[in-house]
Amino acid sequence: MKRDALLRHLRRHGCVVRREGREHSLWENPQTGHAEAVPRHTEISNLLAKRICRRLSIPDPPG
């Protein structure tokens, strides 16, 4: 999955960027307070994308 598609999915479900790092961005779900690191790779494996979404308590990304 492309990183842009995952970030779009996170924003659509109410997640926000807490801070930007050199190798990762830290995204947070303000409704639950959960935070998760998203790598800065252009391609993110589908398994990792699902894991990020589940830890943020949002639905799995399409595809």
Quick synopsis:
The protein has 63 residues and is α+β, with helices and mostly antiparallel strands. Helices cover 32% and strands 24% of the residues.
Strand order of the largest sheet: 1-2-3
Radius of gyration: 10 Å
Q: Can you give the helix content as a percent range?
A: 25-40%
End-to-end Cα distance, whole Å, is 8 Å
Based on Cα principal axes, name the global outline: globular
Number of helices: 2
CATH class term? Alpha Beta
Order of helices and strands: HEEEH
Detailed description of the structure:
- By secondary structure, this protein is of the alpha+beta class.
- It has a single domain, classed as Metal Transport, Frataxin, Chain A, CATH 3.30.920.
- The protein has 2 helices and 3 strands.
- The radius of gyration is 10 Å and the shape is globular.
- The mean pLDDT is 96.
Keywords:
single chain, 63 residues, alpha+beta, Metal Transport, Frataxin, Chain A, 3-stranded antiparallel sheet, globular
